[in-house]
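Key result, reporting period 2: structure in, sequence out.
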């Protein structure tokens, strides 16, 4: 796969404006990594050493115990999929990530990334904005899980994440909603 930086360039220009020279240098440091379907990308109890940008494909993020796996997020559009807390704080992650389709990632080593951020004096704003977004998403996710029924959560997916419902297997959606696939099937029948 060729190094196609169109999506990540657009992402940076929209989400985290960097000066053009810094952006060009940063994008030149990414490399391409491809994964086959059902491949583990991130494993719990490891430290994130690379910043990963999803260029194509679908990835599920989940927690796992000996009894079960619980999906907490799906990535289906171009965006960063790195556990930013592990990456920025040099700590071990508690999450897992698995490719649901063939996946194309752009990756950069943590130290190279930090060097570029420091060189162009944009590191603090990138980190602050990233963590603000992450915290906002996490709080909304937790609030919804506690205050809304599975049916209400499914209806929100219909509105805000229809691409998930089209591209993610239903048993993974059921896990995300913390219900059984059979319950999800009944909800879908009631709503349609």
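The corresponding designed sequence is given below.
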């Amino acid at each position: 796969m060729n190094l196609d930086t169109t999506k990540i360039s657009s992402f940076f220009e929209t989400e985290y404006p960097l000066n053009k020279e810094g952006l060009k240098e940063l994008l030149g440091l990414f490399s391409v990594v491809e994964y086959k379907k059902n491949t583990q990308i991130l494993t719990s109890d490891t430290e994130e050493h690379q910043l990963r940008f999803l260029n194509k494909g679908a990835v599920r993020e989940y927690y796992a115990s000996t009894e079960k796996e619980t999906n907490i997020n799906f990535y289906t559009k171009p965006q960063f999929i790195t556990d930013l807390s592990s990456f920025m704080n040099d700590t071990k992650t508690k999450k897992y990530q698995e490719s649901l389709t063939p996946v194309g990632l752009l990756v950069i080593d943590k130290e190279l990334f930090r060097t570029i951020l420091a060189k162009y004096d944009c590191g603090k704003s990138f980190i602050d904005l990233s963590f603000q977004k992450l915290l906002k998403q996490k709080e909304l996710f937790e609030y919804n899980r506690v205050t809304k029924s599975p049916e209400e959560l499914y209806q929100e997916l219909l509105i805000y994440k229809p691409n998930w419902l089209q591209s993610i297997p239903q048993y993974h959606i059921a896990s995300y909603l913390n219900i059984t696939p059979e319950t999800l099937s009944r909800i879908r029948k009631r709503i349609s």
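The longest strand covers residues 50-56. Strands lie at 31-35, 40-42, 50-56, 59-64, 69-75, 79-80, 96-99, 103-109. This case is discussed further under Risks and Mitigation.
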